[in-house]
Design brief:
- This protein is α+β, with helices and mostly antiparallel strands and 810 residues long.
- It contains 26 helices and 32 strands.
- Helix 1 packs across helix 23 and helix 18 packs across helix 19.
- The radius of gyration is 34 Å and the shape is flat.
- The two termini are 65 Å apart.
- The chain binds one RNA strand of 88 nucleotides through helix 7, strand 11, strand 15, helix 11 and strand 28.
Length: 810
RNA sequence: GCCGGGAUGGCGGAAUAGGCAGACGCAUCGGACUUAAAAUCCGAUGGUAUUUUAUACCGUGCCGGUUCGAGUCCGGCUCCCGGUACCA
């Protein structure tokens, strides 16, 4: 009796074999073409891995092993995103130093990742909290500073009162902290900013060249939020001042019946009339107090106050009142708008609220509506009316003509605006890369010279956030006080740290050359590996991480140290795995741990089920029962192969065996290429079902070997063992991925469905090479066809080669 | 509100490029093996109708269209999921 499939025995055996033979070590002197398959590196939480985490890692590993078999040298590394709030909050909660917590968690995570059986090259492991790594994070920041892309600015920023730190726009979700869910307030702080807006246009246009899911590209382009329009300058009556507005609708300028400034607009106090002074002052104060959430929740009821001042509409010298309202945001455009209530819904609502006049200036042909007829703003297309010399112009043309006219008079110009804001890059927390800047009384802000990097995080007793807007580092005098690298005088270190996204914005550049102490990376390493060929990770990083990483890469390109402009050629977002309808979490108690499954079924079964569970990009529900199916499949396959060997029931290949075998190669290869891995697994199942029916007659060796080989990226331990049992000395991963022979796929006969008036009536089995005439004749002779055609006349005969016959009868 | 994505048996899901809807798996039912159970193996399994057999009709969220033929294409809806939120 052949021995049973025993994953508990064979899985450790092969993991040991791979390690001893250094099969996953990426060596420098390898002439194979490189292929870079990257997982988004995790932050090592204390909770560890569950089956949901496995999904992306299994997928990238299947792909890496497939590429290996195709003859590539595959770089498939792993590392740790260990700075940042999650790690720090965990450490505070458990009262351990974050560095210690990270160390323990990394070890645990690594052990669990080993279970997957993935071909990670652990020699290239990176850790963002390693000074040898963050040295280069600081180095990149220093270069941004030198290029004027990192700057300091005092401004009201998003502040999380729970995490006690400032946050980037991208980290605020529905007015709440992305990490802890606390309501975000505004806090005026002197902040480090990165000028990501300088790259807005390139970040937008280069999306076109990327092989990424459309929705991710769309999310990024919405986030960047490009809009074309014009800036128009209005004079303020009796003040000698001007206000510039941004509008996407210069064609509606004749309909601008009032103007609105953001409450924070700097000119407000200067233009407010004495009578209005009190009202304006208290409105501004109220507006500043409101949090983002309050501003949103207040059902969009428009509020505002008249300033008492008037502006002159430059196109028709009309006198328009200037109001302030919080529906105009200071940090978009110019913080001021011209209001066209007839053609903008927000302006319409405001005008109705405060009884301001409307003027229709755009109307489609055939319509006659006037201001009084409108119950909502008309925002559609049309021709300009009530617009003097511009009357009759189509709106799109009007935009251009009006802008040109203003430009010629020097009071307006075409303008592009972006929603994207500069990146708030300081955190008032301990656990991050120190920002490598020194404040000198004499020299001002001085960047730490390269030779003094890294600026190490000092060891401290208390790393808890202060909440004052100052980082805990500020309290460590012996660290803060230093000397100026330029004048040698007394100076203080910058005490803010970088956000978690800093290290992850470039870590993928370090794996190709992770131990380089001279440079962040060598040119050869970049040349061989970058850009990343396939990047696998969750869609939750669609904006944050992926946008920041693209920005860093473009900056490094401009710095001349990388040749490419985009870091990730192809992106794949795996779906999440739910249990009981919810995301797995410890608090919900619905976590499925791989440990138990490993003991009962083995790693390869989990790998296979992770793939079989559903289309890889779609969210799915975990099913313990469904799991049994793949476990049975592996047992059946094992038994089939070992029985054939045991009983020596090998035969010469038959035509049918060959056809099915080559059909399997074709299906599995195509489905892999399309990332339809769930259907690739079902192809294996169908094939084994077929072989099981054949086993009494015996099976040829090639059929079994091909099966084991094709399965190897999916179930590497299983395949290695069977490959050995089949008599091979070398690892199955030294083999080549097979190619199918199209000639072997062709059968002698085919089955053709025969329709009458589009309804299937019978099936015709006929020689594959039969002529159209023969086929139609045979089809018409089929008993059920004859029956259904009785008394009818054929008016049309359709034969789609090798697909279908359809007879149209009357 | 706007922008994406989706809806197929009891369930998860298949269906290159308009050509046999429901592959594969789960669950269920029947059978074999067993003293028995588990495991395993074999078979059935979208719905309705007809006594059998087989056949007919219906069936991919809803309504309509194009076509010899529509899950697939076009027009109009409904619901669900994700992103975004006064961005001028």
């Amino acid at each position: 009796m052949a021995r049973k499939y025993n994953p508990q025995e064979i899985e450790p055996k092969w993991q040991k074999y791979w390690a001893e033979k250094e099969m996953h070590t990426v060596k420098k002197d390898d002439s194979r073409p490189g292929y870079y398959c990257l997982d988004m590196f995790p932050y090592p939480s204390g909770i560890g891995l569950h089956v949901g985490h496995w999904r992306g890692y299994v997928l990238s590993d299947v792909w890496s092993r497939y590429k290996t078999l195709q003859g590539y040298q595959v770089l498939h590394p792993m590392g740790w995103d260990a700075f940042g709030l999650p790690a720090e909050n965990y450490a505070i909660q458990h009262k351990v130093h974050p560095a210690k917590a990270v160390k323990v968690n990394v070890e645990n995570f690594k052990r669990q990742l080993h279970d997957i059986g993935a071909m990670y090259d652990w020699n290239r492991e990176v850790n963002t909290t390693d000074p040898e790594f963050y040295k280069w994070t600081q180095w990149i920041f220093a270069n941004m500073f030198k290029k004027g892309l990192a700057y300091r600015k005092e401004m009201p920023i998003n502040w999380c009162p729970d995490c006690k730190t400032g946050l980037a726009n991208e980290e605020v979700v529905n007015g709440a902290c992305e990490r802890c869910g606390a309501e975000i307030t505004k806090k005026n702080l002197n902040q480090w900013m990165l000028k990501i807006t300088a790259y807005a246009e390139r970040l937008l246009t280069d999306l076109d060249s990327l092989e990424w899911p459309e929705r991710v590209k769309k999310m990024q382009s919405n986030w960047i939020g490009r809009s074309e329009g014009a800036e128009i300058t209005f004079e303020i009556e009796g003040h000698g001042e001007t206000v510039t507005v941004f509008t996407t609708r210069p064609d509606t300028l004749f309909g601008a019946t009032y103007m609105v400034l953001a409450p924070e607009h700097p000119i407000v106090s200067a233009i407010t009339s004495t009578e209005q002074n009190g009202a304006v002052k208290s409105y501004v104060e109220e507006a500043l107090k409101k949090s983002n959430v309050e501003r949103m929740i207040e059902d969009k009821q428009k509020t505002g106050v008249f300033t008492g001042a008037f502006a002159i509409n430059p196109i028709n010298d009309g006198k328009v009142p200037i109001w302030i309202s919080d529906y105009v945001l200071m940090d978009y455009g110019t913080g001021a708008i011209m209001s066209v209530p007839a053609h903008d819904q927000r302006d319409f609502d405001f005008a109705k609220e405060f009884n301001l006049p409307l003027q229709v200036v755009i109307r489609p042909d055939g319509e006659t509506f006037e201001a009084d007829d409108l119950t909502e703003a008309y925002t559609g297309p049309g021709k300009m009316v009530n617009s003097g010399e511009f009357d009759g112009l189509a709106w799109e043309e009007g935009k251009k003509k009006v802008t040109d006219s203003l430009a010629s008079r020097g009071i307006g110009k075409a303008m592009v605006n972006y929603k994207l804001r500069d990146w708030v890059f300081s955190r008032q927390r301990y656990w991050g890369e120190p920002i490598p800047i020194i404040h000198c009384e004499q020299c001002g802000m001085v960047v730490v010279p390269d030779e003094d990097l890294p600026v190490r995080l000092p060891d401290v007793e208390s790393y808890e956030p202060t909440g004052t807007g100052e980082s805990p580092l500020a309290r460590i005098e012996e660290w803060v006080n230093t000397t100026c690298p330029e004048c040698g005088g007394p100076a203080k270190r910058e005490t803010d740290t970088m956000p978690q996204w800093a290290g992850s914005s470039w870590y993928f550049l370090r794996y190709p050359d992770p131990h380089n102490s001279e440079k962040p990376w060598s040119e050869e390493a970049m040349e061989k590996w970058m850009p990343v060929d396939l990047y696998v990770g969750g869609v939750e990083h669609a904006i944050l991480h992926l946008l920041y990483a693209r920005f860093f890469t473009k900056f490094l390109h401009d710095l001349g140290i990388v040749s490419f402009e985009e870091p990730f050629n192809r992106l794949f977002n795996q779906g999440m795995i739910y249990k009981d309808g919810a995301k797995m979490s410890k608090s919900k108690g619905n976590v499925v741990s791989p440990d138990e499954l490993i003991d009962r079924y083995g790693r390869d079964s989990i790998r296979l089920y992770e793939l079989f569970i559903g289309p890889p990009e779609v969210d799915v529900e975990w099913s313990d029962q469904g799991f049994e199916g793949v476990a049975r499949f592996l047992n059946r396959s094992w038994n089939l192969i070992t029985e054939i060997i045991e009983d020596d029931r090998f035969i010469e290949p038959t035509k049918e065996l060959e056809r099915e075998c080559h059909g399997l190669i074709k299906d599995v290869t195509e489905r892999l290429e399309d990332m339809k891995l769930n259907t690739a697994v079902s192809a294996f199942m169908s094939y084994v079902n077929f072989l099981n029916k054949e086993k009494e007659n015996g099976i040829d060796r090639a059929s079994l070997e091909t099966l084991v080989l094709l399965l190897s990226p999916f179930t590497p331990h299983f395949s290695e063992e069977l490959w050995q049992i089949l008599g091979h000395e070398e690892s199955v991963f030294k083999e080549k991925w097979p190619e199918y022979d199209p000639k072997k796929l062709v059968a002698d006969e085919m089955e053709l469905p025969v329709q009458i008036n589009g309804k299937i009536r019978d099936t015709l089995t006929i020689d594959i090479n039969a002529s159209k005439e023969d086929i139609l004749a045979a089809a018409k002779a089929l008993p059920n066809v004859v029956r259904n055609m009785e008394g009818m006349r054929v008016v049309k005969e359709i034969y789609v080669p090798k697909k279908i016959v359809n007879l149209v009868v009357k």
